[in-house]
Specification:
The strands form two sheets. The chain has a nine-stranded mixed β-sheet with strand order 1-2-12-9-14-7-6-3-5. Strands 4-8-13-10-11 form a five-stranded mixed β-sheet, with helices on one face. It has 343 residues and is of the alpha+beta class. The longest helix is centred in the C-terminal third of the chain and has 16 residues. Helix content is 26%, strand content 23%. 31% of the residues are buried.
């Protein structure tokens, strides 16, 4: 018998004063947190509570006409965006659309249980709906948020398959209800990640169907299921979680809008960690285990341990790339890496 996903819910707090929420501290604690009513005073939330048509009318008041991307899946898939049986192609359609016309298609399918699922995935608010962020503000204070990316997600009953993001996230429900199922990063092996390419939404996804886990094919998912945390969100609520937490996101009503804010505290000159992972696959993964163990100790010393340790016993003039990185140091290190890759 398949064990159910744990019923353990993420910690909850109330946003008595949304402007006073310390998002960096919440993320630093290392666990997801539901914030009830964080964006309850947004005009977008008020419009959504009036109805789907009112929500669309309000949103389109900011639309600048720029073509976006719409994802459409046939009814039999029940809103789950995934792969075909070969795991080499996706099982849904992707097309360039005028977003106002695509939203009209969503409205036209309201109440139709046999309708396709429609999904506007991560879409930059400032590029497509300028002014929305100012009219529906979230107080993000501190230098860590200077490069925060604001995105909007729109659709009917859809499921974003379990995946991770490389940034911290504040996910705000503006219309409809959402259910997040979150897994800590250390459960990666028990979630059975799929191919690196293609991916349904740009990130690797778990092959496990959370609605019907196949423990014959994925036996260790039973361990991940017990580590999961659930966040059930109403309009106006938000969930905050750290980078690399795996999460499945289910939109549970006929019309749903989610707005999220992604950010990292790391400086802009750092490369994405996935670049290092891919190069490690090229240079380390297929070496003998004894060598891999030795390199694991080396990486722990130079990378995963205290950042200042490798240079602490060296004079400043001799530290080179072991010194704290700045923009120029990152450029030099990148140039040296490219030289070695192109040898």
């Amino acid at each position: 018998m398949t064990p159910p996903i744990t019923s353990r819910h993420a910690r909850e707090i109330s946003a008595d004063d949304p402007a006073a929420v310390d998002f960096e501290a919440l993320v630093a604690a290392g666990q997801p947190v539901v914030i009830r009513g964080l964006v309850a005073d947004w005009p977008m939330v008020a419009a959504g509570q009036t109805g789907a048509q009112a929500a669309v009318d309000y949103l389109l008041g900011f639309y600048n006409g720029r073509p976006g991307t719409g994802y459409t899946a046939r009814p039999a898939l029940q809103g789950r965006y995934f792969y075909d049986d070969t795991l080499t192609a996706l099982d849904f359609e992707r097309e360039r659309v005028q977003l106002d016309a695509y939203l009209a298609r969503i409205l036209g399918a309201l109440g139709d249980a046999d309708a396709p699922s429609f999904y506007v995935g991560s879409t930059d608010l400032d590029q497509y709906f300028p002014g929305f962020g100012d009219a529906n503000p979230l107080a993000l204070n501190g230098p860590a948020f200077e490069r925060a990316l604001r995105s909007i997600w729109i659709g009917n009953r859809t499921t974003a398959t379990t995946h991770y993001d490389m940034s911290n996230n504040i996910a705000c429900v503006a219309a409809g209800r959402r259910r997040f199922t979150l897994f800590p990063p250390d459960q990666v092996a028990n979630l059975y990640p799929g191919p690196l390419e293609p991916t349904p939404g740009g990130q690797v996804v778990s092959l496990v169907n959370l609605a019907d886990p196949d423990l014959t094919a994925f036996p260790n998912f039973a361990i991940a299921a017990q580590a999961a945390q659930i966040a059930e969100l109403e309009p106006g609520d938000a969930v905050v979680y750290p980078a690399l937490w795996w999460h499945q996101v289910e939109a549970q009503d006929d019309f749903n809008i989610l707005v999220n804010y992604w950010w990292n505290a790391a400086p802009a000159f750092l490369d994405p960690p996935m670049t290092a992972l891919l190069h490690a696959m090229l240079s380390l993964r297929d070496r003998p285990q004894a060598e891999k163990d030795a390199w694991a100790a080396m990486f722990d010393y130079y990378v995963f341990g205290p950042a200042a340790r490798p240079a602490a016993h060296l004079p400043s003039a001799a530290q080179g790339p072991l010194a704290p990185l700045d923009d120029m140091g990152a450029r030099r290190l990148r140039a040296e890496l490219l030289r070695r890759l192109n040898r």
